[in-house]
Design brief:
Layout: H1 4-15, H2 27-41, H3 47-52, E1 97-101, E2 111-119, E3 122-130, E4 140-146, E5 165-170, E6 180-184, E7 191-199, E8 202-209, H4 215-225, E9 227-232, E10 237-239, E11 247-256, E12 262-270, H5 277-282, E13 284-291, E14 308-310, E15 313-320, E16 323-328, E17 334-341, H6 348-352, E18 356-358
């Protein structure tokens, strides 16, 4: 059984892996062609649109300029109150904001994750659902929300071989405009990748992997069910006392809806300026809170043998060369973990622990993914 942090790591490896941009496909050109055909067709049928979206070519960023206003009302089968887009594309990503939520998911995807801020592939938002498997039965749905002007890129394959675009086809109207399915080489399971503009010059992608025989149909249902909005990410604690020269770069929350249910919520800070993921993630401070489970079996992956106490709670502390890691167990039903890459003074993780103020009943808390 995977513990909360391993669930997060698993989904991070699946969904947030750095991706290589494709040199063989220009999504903007396909979408622009679709708009041109839509205007020419004027109700004569979808055949011209389907034909227009079977082209590919070299990347031409100027073709991403839209010729339509953003949608202001729900589209298609989106649930009441939901939209398949935002009023404007994101120029910055606030890690503490929720930008998109699932409205529908296929059965069996019970491990959920939301990340916002500086991800491994750059600034953006990832929303995902998985069956929690790491073998050939792995299934997941992933939503990527990109900053303004950033083009979608090719998926990363387990084989390490670059995925190349093999074709496109028309998707349904989403957010008042066309969408496009993009096929890539090297997929180990049935896969569908559906893209559209959630706002002018802002791209969103739904990727479905290993979920049933009709992946495109699942992708459309997921896309139409997405709820785009903005609001704060609910967190199980408040963290004060972080040095002022550290900037928050990422918020990560995950939750498993399978028994034994668990969740994880974490913040990551860095001292490095700029937006280079490699530099900013090289030295970080991370505070994570997860649901406590009493594990007595040393063979269980969630089992960790405490080697000290902090404020009367069992804890495990370790570190070297200025790096420290502290996990304090069963703090009113939650675990608190502080990982520091030499950004704090010696003993800084212990000093920061009292500045983590948990909600009143953390054992009963859930992420916004559960709601």
């Amino acid at each position: 059984m995977l513990d909360e942090r391993q669930i997060g790591d698993l989904m991070l490896a699946e969904i947030e892996s750095a991706e290589r941009p494709s040199a063989l496909l220009d999504v903007g050109r396909a979408m622009t062609t679709a708009r041109r055909q839509r205007r020419r067709a004027q109700g004569l049928g979808a055949a011209l649109l389907v034909a227009a979206l079977t082209v590919g070519g070299l990347t031409v960023p100027d073709l991403l300029i839209p010729d339509r206003p953003p949608a202001t009302a729900p589209i298609g089968a989106a649930p009441a109150g939901g939209e398949t887009g935002l009023p404007v594309a994101l120029t910055t990503v606030d890690p503490q904001q929720v930008y998109v939520r699932f409205g529908w998911l296929p059965d069996g995807l019970r491990n959920l994750q939301y990340q916002a801020g500086l991800l491994l592939s750059g600034p953006g938002v990832h929303l995902s659902a998985s069956n929690g498997r790491t073998d050939d039965q792995r299934q997941f749905v992933a939503v990527s929300l990109l900053q303004k002007g950033v083009q979608p890129s090719a998926p990363q394959r387990d084989s390490g071989q670059p995925a190349t675009a093999t074709g496109t086809s028309a998707g349904p109207e989403l957010n008042g405009g066309p969408s496009v399915f993009t096929n890539y080489s090297g997929a180990e399971k049935p896969e569908a990748i559906l893209r559209w503009e959630y706002a002018p010059k802002g791209w969103v992608q739904v990727r479905v992997f290993g979920v049933g025989p009709d992946a495109p149909s699942v992708a459309v249902q997921v896309a139409r069910g997405l709820r785009f909005d903005t609001g704060p990410v609910p967190m199980p604690a408040a963290v004060t006392g972080v040095p002022a020269d550290l900037g928050l770069i990422t918020v990560d929350v995950s939750e498993s809806l399978d028994e034994p249910r668990g969740w994880y919520a974490g913040w990551t800070w860095t001292a490095e300026p700029g937006t280079d993921p490699g530099r900013q993630r090289a030295r970080t401070l991370t505070v994570g809170v997860s649901r406590y489970r009493h594990i007595t079996d040393p063979a269980d992956k969630a089992y960790v043998n405490p080697n000290t106490t902090v404020d009367g709670h069992p804890a495990r502390f370790g570190g070297q060369n200025g790096n420290e890691s502290l996990t304090v167990y069963d703090v009113n039903g939650a675990n608190v973990t502080i990982d520091d890459s030499a950004l704090l003074p010696a003993g800084g993780t212990r000093a920061l622990f009292p500045a983590v103020t948990l909600v009143a009943e953390p054992a009963a808390w859930h992420t916004h993914l559960y709601r």
